[in-house]
Design brief:
Two copies of one chain form a homodimer.
Chain A (H helix, E strand, L loop, with lengths): L2 H24 L6 H12 L3 E3 H8 L3 H13 L3 E6 L2 E9 L3 H20 L4 H23 L7
Antiparallel strand pairs in A: 1-3, 2-3
Helix pairs in contact in A: 1-5, 2-5, 3-4
Chain A binds a DNA duplex (30 and 30 nucleotides) through helix 1, helix 2, helix 4 and strand 3.
Chain lengths: 151, 151
Amino acid sequence: MSLNAEFVTALRRVTQRWRTLWDAELRGSGQTLGRSRALLILSQSGGSAMQRDLAEALSVEHPTLVRLLDGLERQGLIRREPVPGNARANRIVLTDAAAPVVQEVDGVSEGLRERVLHDIPRAELETALRVLNMVAARLEKLGTAPEGGQG
Amino acid sequence: MSLNAEFVTALRRVTQRWRTLWDAELRGSGQTLGRSRALLILSQSGGSAMQRDLAEALSVEHPTLVRLLDGLERQGLIRREPVPGNARANRIVLTDAAAPVVQEVDGVSEGLRERVLHDIPRAELETALRVLNMVAARLEKLGTAPEGGQG
DNA sequence: CGCGCTTATGTAGCTTGCTAATGTTAGCTT
DNA sequence: AAGCTAACATTAGCAAGCTACATAAGCGCG
């Protein structure tokens, strides 16, 4: 298998396993990876955000976010609030009940990162991150302008 | 955001975009990423494989593979054949009709890898791959023995 | 004012991950 | 031989990606 192919295979594998492990650790707390990511981003945004911005921060499409928010709303962890002066938009707000959940989810995600990555040499991790960012940029360019030339 | 957190974010983002782009390129050919991965692995295994081994090679659980195979069987691209001497197992065999599809899918995946990765310096890509493999190993260890000690 | 473009969100339906539970067959063990 | 356990496949049901379409509101232009 070529270096390129191995890279892609490893990428998928790591992402998938990470998701599975994260999901498993959250099972007891009623959360899932998708929802917990939304909670964390919301919390990092100061507790509220426009739905549109949230989708972008999570790197998911709007319909995906809608379902995550439906779930969180059902659990009483967020509210969709109308935005004064813009009847289309919603502001997503963390409720008080969300605080402990955010705390727990944050602990789990941080703990998992630490456990998995602690013995990877910083320099190599930085190189890997740089590569991933290059690849992400490349993918986004190809994704937005796929027709015509050969980039 | 910490280096660790950035790494995880980048990882997810790249994997997700890769999937989306791959899916988009295959849309015209009736294939999807999951099924096409199964086809490629099958082809690389000489055109047939035990279902169990296929799941492992794809890094997916059995039920996931079952559905992929259901789809491929419906499209007439594979057959499930009984294994002489082992009535539990299935041997998955590529049909003749699969050859051109495999060809196309292989071209798309190779082309995508090439387009996205061609300008990443080999040395950095190798480092990134090494990191990913370390992480994968770590995740698998944590996944199989999560209870008790702190690894 | 109304027509149409854009923006923001939501709905429908597909795919593909997963776990848990169900059968069925094979292989041991007693 | 009967019964337990392990292996292999499947089904059921949930989660979370996606695209395509729908709904509704703001904005601009004639």
